[in-house]
Structures are given as C-alpha cells and as structure tokens.
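Now for one protein, fold included:
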Amino acid sequence: MADAALRLTGILEQLLGAPLPVRIRTWDGSQAGPPEAPVLVVRNRRALRRLLFKPGELGLARAWVAGDLTIDGDLYTVLDLLAGIVWERDEDARTLAQSLRDPEFRSAVRRLFAMAGPPLPPAPPREEVRRPRRGLHTKRSDKRAISHHYDVGNEFYEIVLGPSMVYSCAYWPAPPPEGTLEQAQHDKLELVARKLALRPGQRLLDVGCGWGSMAIHAAREHGVNVVGITLSQEQAAYARKRIAEEGLTDRVEIRVQDYRDVADGPYDAISSIGMAEHVGSERYLEYATVLHRLLSPGGRLLNHQIARRPQRDESSYQVDEFIDAYVFPDGELAPLGTTVSLLERAGFEVRDVESIREHYALTLRRWVANLESGQARATALAGPGRTRVWLLYMAASALAFERNRIGVNQVVAVRTPESGASGVPLRARVWGAPGPS
C-alpha cells in the first residue's frame, strides 16, 4: 500500500506541533495534506536523512540543492507557507531538550528514522562550502569567498541579470513598475552618480565593481575617470572587454585588487554598491577608515548595502546557514544603525540615508523570472545544483525584502573638511506627495 505521504505528514505534524501548510507527495506516488495547497515533492528517502541529520534550514537546503526535494507549484507560495515553521521558528537548545524528553516526540523521531532508511548522513551537495568560521576576512579568505560566488561563469550571470549585468538592487519608478529591468538598473546607476555629484574630470573609485556597469556609466555619462576594483578574475576580464567595446579604456581601469591595497588616492568620490556585505563585522571599521582615507576633503561615499533587522541581543546573531554554505561564504549583514555608527567613527559625516527595500524585492523577482525562463541553459552552464541554489536564494530573498525581514539602504557620507563645508545642497532630496494611507 502506497501510504508514505500520509505517514510522513503525520510524523512531521507531530514533530512541529502544527499542521503542514503544504501538500506532500512522496517517492511511492502517494499524497497527503491540504488538497488545494502547492505540493512539496519528497523524491526519495535520502531527503529525510538530510533533515534528520541536519534539522531545519540547512537540511532542507541540502535536499533542495541535491534534487531530493522539489516543488510542484509556485516557489514563492511554498517558501512563504514554510517560513513560519522553518525559518521563523525561534527554538533554542533548551526548547529542543524539552521536546526530546517528551515520549511522543521521541517516538515520532524514531518513526522518521525508520522511514528514512539506513541511518547514514548523506554527503552534502558539492556546491556547499563548509569551513570553520575563524580567521575570517583575511585577504586570502575574502578572495576565495568572492571567487565561490562570482566565478560561476559570466554566461550564467548574463541569464540572471540580463543585458545590464548589474548585480544589485534596481531603482523602479512609481507607481509599481511596468518598465524593464535594464531601465531600472540604468536609473539606479544614475541615482548613484547624482548622489555623488559626479562631474567631468573627477576620479571615482568603484569598490566591488562587478562586471563594470557603474564604471562604464560614470565614464560615459558623466565624463569621470574611474578605477574599478574586484577580487573576481572573471568579472575583471568581462568588465575590461565591455570597456574596450565602449571605447573607454582611456578613462576606466579595472583592477583585481583588495580595497585594503588601494594606495593611489585621493579620489573625489567612491561608490560601494553591494560590496560591504562581504566585509564582515570585524573588518567594517577598517573598511570605512580605508575609504575615508582614500577620499579628498569634501569627497563623497555612496555605500549601498543590505541590512538586517537589529536583535535584542546582538551577541546572539548567527549567519544564515544556507547563505553562508551556498551563496555568500563569510558574508554578514548588520543593522543600518551599526553601519551608520561605524562610518561616523571612521570620520565620515553621514548626510543622507535612503531605504529602497521594496525595490530589491521587485528586482529579485525579475531575476528569478530570468533564471526560470533560461533554466535549461543555466543548468547546462553551471549545473543543476547551482541553478537550484540561485532559484532558492533569490526567491527567498525577495520574500524577505517584501516582509521587512531585511532591507537595503543607500548611505551618502562625506569626508567633511575642518571648515565644515560639506558641499551638500540644503535640500538634497525632494519628497513626493504622500502615498495612500
């Protein structure tokens, strides 16, 4: 009798203490759960072993990346439904210990082990990076982490990002966008240029320059001389090719260089777009101090950075296991207030902070749509596991931005001279009419 789905659903609901919000289909073809709900497909018993030996987010992620778990239905809907019982459960070691003392809980665990088969933990998918979190953010470890994320293949990123090749939050028009991703990315680059008040002949340092889009925009549209730095060899090669095709080699230089090794300041402006998340809390003050030193008096920094919500006890913050293992090794998110405080400690005067959280959710949904439509080619280029990593990471991130679990902010900071003349207009930004109540 094919009844694995019914038995599994009963066990999981007993362990979770709540009904499953999704329908389950198992390897024997059986189904159980809400009839109209999207379907979580447990393709083999190995998926259960992954969850048993690594309960929670990382076990689910390993099963997804390996193809042991798939989804029949809308990915966003399933992630949203599962968030409350997986990602948003706040269970500490004490709670788990109490559960293990419950005979019924222990019985459910034993039944799950029996369903899972031989009790050997499956090897993690090859896409996973695991290493001790010590000695972080040395120049060598940063270069290795950046290579893991960005040296996937430029053609893969062309599928995800589209022609703009900008891997950061776009800037969409209001009301909700009908325009293209490419136009929204152009508008974001122009927003950065205007916040930096770029003028012909100035020197711009683009920290974490990616595939060269900001450097090209600043040189072509604003007549600026640009140095772009990245730790990715593949990004640098791609950016140099684009710059040559644009005829901008006399105004744009791309280096494979750590920000700590830049020694040819001063610069009139610095853009750091989606790079500071890689710096780490232990190094952030050093990062801010280096950028302050590289700026001319009166020079501006545009720091575009993802932020997490603050915790009551900041010492309890833990890096997201899935993101650390599969997406951004060694990456860390900080609350906005921490970032602003460290920029000020480094000597900056923070003049403007703009949250563009909703813009990132819109951007990520476009990237997911790009990857879904180009999934066959992406899989051929980077492999099925890597493609599944990016689909899960981007879809889950879109929901996180929409639900205000994380945000993204553009901070304009000035190396204000002793005279106090910041060079910032009295009305730097003009607010529009009030939105709907």
In short: The longest helix spans residues 384-402. The CA atoms of residues 6 and 32 lie 5 Å apart.
